[in-house]
Amino acid sequence: MIKNYFLDLKTYVSNFYEIKFVDELLCNINIENILGFEVNAYVKDIYEHYKTFNLVWFNEGKYWGEVNFVPYDNLENEHSELVEIMEDLYDTKEDVYDITQDIMNWYPIFYFDNGDAFCLDKRNGNIVLYEHEVYDSGKNLHGLRIAMSLNDLFEKWEKIHFADVYYWDEICNKEGIDVNSKLSQEYI
To answer: Are the beta carbons of 21 and 27 closer than 8 angstroms?
Structure first.
């Protein structure tokens, strides 16, 4: 039986948290890879069977986590929208933050309510943090490595129950989410 990250998360969250929003639409498509990168059977199963998966949960009235999944069919569209946002908000000719090449190669795979996103970097397959305020405040956590690959993201993020971490820099090391970090232990 294939592991289903989203079903496991929904089961876990419903047992320990208050679900505020859930939207789920299944599909059946065949894919070979994600933007040219090989993925394991578990991640492939997610992309082949989820047209929509959005889940928001709270802990004792406090926002705790969310998953706003970008399905396979929307990857190019979301990339185009990210590029359009950059072109509208940022002077790419005066690229003082060196972010133009990042955005041109980043494909959102998960969004957060605040506008941030986890993106797949087509240059190397890393998962990085797109920080929506980068155009106003410069690089802060923008470009922080969250995982080494899509497989790595699902494996590590699942261990902290797909939590939305405010201080991603405190939970990540040079290889992405560090499940042994002090902050990770608060979510496990």
So the answer is: no
